[in-house]
Design a protein that fits this description.
The complex is a heterodimer.
Chain A (H helix, E strand, L loop, with lengths): L2 E10 L2 E11 L4 E5 L6 H9 L6 E6 L2 E2 L5 H7 L1 E3 L12 H6 L20 H17 L15 H14 L4 E5 L7 H18 L2 E5 L3 H7 L2 E6 L2 E6 L1 H6 L1 H8 L2
Chain B lengths: L5 H28 L7 H23 L12 H14 L1 H30 L6 H20 L1 H4 L5 E2 L11 H27 L2 H11 L1 H6 L4 H27 L1 E2 L6 H14 L4 H27 L7 H18 L14 H12 L14 H10 L2
Antiparallel strand pairs in B: 1-2
Helix pairs in contact in B: 1-7, 1-10, 1-11, 1-12, 2-3, 2-4, 2-5, 2-10, 4-10, 11-12, 11-13, 14-15
Classes of the chains: A alpha/beta, B mainly alpha.
Amino acid sequence: MLLELKHLRKDFGGLRAVDDVSLNVPEGAIIGLIGPNGSGKSTLINLIAGTIDLTAGQVIFAGEDISGLSADAVFHKGIARGYQEPTLYFKMTVLDNLLLPVKGQRGERPWYAPRWSTWQREERAHALAAMEVLRQVQLLPYYDTLASDLSGGQMKLLEIARALMGAPKLLLLDEPTAGVAPKLAYDIFRQIARLRDDHGITLLIVEHRLEILFDFVDYVYVMHLGNLLAGGSAAEISDHATVREVYFGD
Amino acid sequence: MINIDIGATAIAILTLFGIYSLMAISLNLEYGIAGVPNFGQALFVSIGAYTAGITYTRVLPLLAGLESVHPCGPTMGQALQLRSEIMAAQPLAGFINLGLTFLIAAIVSGAVGFAVSYVTLRLKEEWFLALVLLVGGETVRIVVRGADDFICSHNGISGVAQPFYFLRDPHSSSLLFMLLCLALALVAYVYSQRLAHSPYGRMLKGLRENEDVTRGLGKGISLARAQIMLIGSAIAAVGGVLFALNTGFVNTNDYVVNLTLDIWVMVVLGGIGNNRGALLGAALIAILDRFTQVGAIALNMSGSEIEFNYVRFIAFGLILLLMLRYRPTGLLPESRLTTNAHDVVRRAIGASNQPPTPSRHRDGGHPKHQGGGAMRET
């Protein structure tokens, strides 16, 4: 099992946003995480990514307890994430957005940074790797464009591409198709599926567009009011009476 | 009418430009590129000046093989005469002392910048650091002003001579000192440019744009910001040493909040995040400074009761307001490219789009493979 969440809890003052959630994410799977607004999905993503602190529980990643690690340490363990709103570096070019997350860059150390010859060769390799990633997500023609000048769908793709540059084992995506036209939303999910197929990346995806999500996921977890309500295949969840009641209002 | 010596004025302005450039480049690295709001720039400049005050009175005589004289109180005149004699007769001791002063000032100031920022920037709001530095700068100034051991409390230390004082020709020594200031400014500029256009500079810009995302992408932001504060503070202190040498006097009154404001005006005016902009801002403020000084003298000599020096504050306030309203990016906006990566991709794309030519495809390869070959080079 790549990721195991054990009795995760998060309190914001008197509000319990996540309450005793335990779930597993097997390696190489695409797992969906759904639930009505306010059910605690994004909070769960933030807890796994180390963006916010846990109140209680354990996060086990690749057999190692990473509970309480900071976001940068979690990233170095192999967990990258996307955000609900595109959180790119809007004043930087598409290429710079991709190069920033590359791990272990020698030129990021102030001692080496002014001595260009010590890192330019490495930077060249990273640039060419970024170029390949951009080609995959069809953003290569925009490598020199400011991120702020991209369309909403392109921003989502860039965010995914950026996470990919950190060579993650697990990618957490929070509504990767929010605000995107239906056709492009499918394209985005096809790209996501390629991350698993071509790069072996495991994915945990929060998504509201169930009609698209269910076409791609191996397993779905449902959250409601901070609790884990159900888990099962897309077909099982579609037919789950309680899920239909709280989620679809049936 | 007052007579203006054009040559001396040009030297004075260029000297000031060199000194201001160091201060502006320092703040531009910290705030312009890394987004660290240093409202205590006067503190780091003052560390350089106070260091000069201490080394010129305590270390210089020892380097000259003489016994030092307490620079304050009844022996103040004797101490002043001693360092004047040494600077005039033993230039080597003066240069070694200057080198030591730069070194000590840079280390102390860098360490203070690193320590303060590393502690305070771990907090969520980086503006806490701005307040700590603002208050810290003023606190240090008041402590130094009240303590006799540093720079003779409120009296300050005079006779902190330029290293070329031994030439005995004010014009030549000023000219060489100007060149020294410009040379150090050039070194700082080249260093800062190389820093800004590196992966480290890119990471700092990332921190400036979105701290949470950058942390989520695996960057240790507290350390990175503390490091740039170390570098920026060290450069500011070197500027402070030159500032003291230029006036020949170290006094706490020169390092009040106004100095911090001046440096902010240089950066905002020139272009936030652009080292060339910092130089432009420094040049414009150096000219404005000289203009207001000459204006004040002219008005005083004409018997006017108008305090023309205050025009400087009004002008600086107006500059800040107008720039923030009409050109918030400054006169020279930040360049968007960082490293050699864009050139690499541009060339790789260009190579893959080359039309087939006999010499390139003797082996029957497809033109696109040329691009692939380029990529495999690394």
